[in-house]
Amino acid sequence: MKIAPIYYLTISLDFWTPKIWRKIWIRGDEKLNYVAWVLFTSMGWTGYHLSAFIIRDIFYGNISIEDPPDEWLDWTKYNLYDIAKTKLTQFKFLYDFGDSWEMTVKIRELNDLDKNAPYPVCVNGKNAAPPEDVGSYVGFEHFIKVMKDENHPEYKEISETWISDTFDSSYFSVDEVNDIIQDKKVFQEYVDEKFGF
């Protein structure tokens, strides 16, 4: 059996400065639902919200939800190689259709890596992603402003919601991401809870 190619994904949050980005190596035989989990986990998100890929104007997502859009393809039926073998260089990944986090994912095949090494692995990144349910880009900007000023009238309420009195927008840890995405048991628990399969 042919060994799956390894892909280098560069994920960056659109419409935000300074750039929030991650670089990940991942096997091409991983299903798209697993790739989605790796992407949002690398950003520090839990997967509580809907996510989807837009690849050449086609949506791939979780069709087991109530009333999925008719045009969505089932992301458990496709792996990364299925979409990348068509000379794809980038695609979109959406997370949280309320806050509308849109990411550009650049993809390229790596030919000089050990294909039997433990993938996925996060190899680099920069800056903290927005917290869950922060209120889209405007809300994130406000959140950062408030968390920098302990005298702000909303500081107490927001810091209690955030469950921390600090937020460092420049913080990112490769090790913390890898502790999660390299644990298949964590992913299986996520799948069992969210999708029941």
Oligomer: single chain
Q: CATH topology of the largest domain, what is it called? A: Structural Genomics Hypothetical 15.5 Kd Protein In mrcA-pckA Intergenic Region, Chain A
By secondary-structure content and strand pairing, the structural class works out as alpha+beta
Taking the alpha carbons of the first and last residues, their distance comes to: 26 Å
Q: Specify the CATH class of the largest domain.
A: Alpha Beta
Q: Uncertain spans, ≥5 residues at pLDDT below 50? A: none
Overall tally of domains: 2
What is the fourth-level CATH superfamily of the largest domain?
A: MM3350-like
Helical fraction equals 25-40%
Mean pLDDT: 92
Strand order of the largest sheet: 5-4-3-6-7-1-2-8
Number of strands: 8
SSE succession: EEHEEEHEEEHHHH
Q: Output the radius of gyration.
A: 17 Å
Which shape, going by the Cα principal axes? globular
What is the element layout, followed by pairings?
Layout (H helix, E strand, L loop, with lengths): L5 E8 L7 E7 L4 H11 L8 E5 L2 E4 L11 E2 L5 H5 L5 E6 L5 E10 L10 E6 L9 H12 L7 H8 L11 H8 L2 H11 L3
Parallel strand pairs: 4-5
Antiparallel strand pairs: 1-2, 1-7, 2-8, 3-4, 3-6, 6-7
Helix pairs in contact: 1-5
List the defining traits of the structure above:
alpha+beta; Structural Genomics Hypothetical 15.5 Kd Protein In mrcA-pckA Intergenic Region, Chain A; 6 helices; eight-stranded mixed sheet; 197 residues
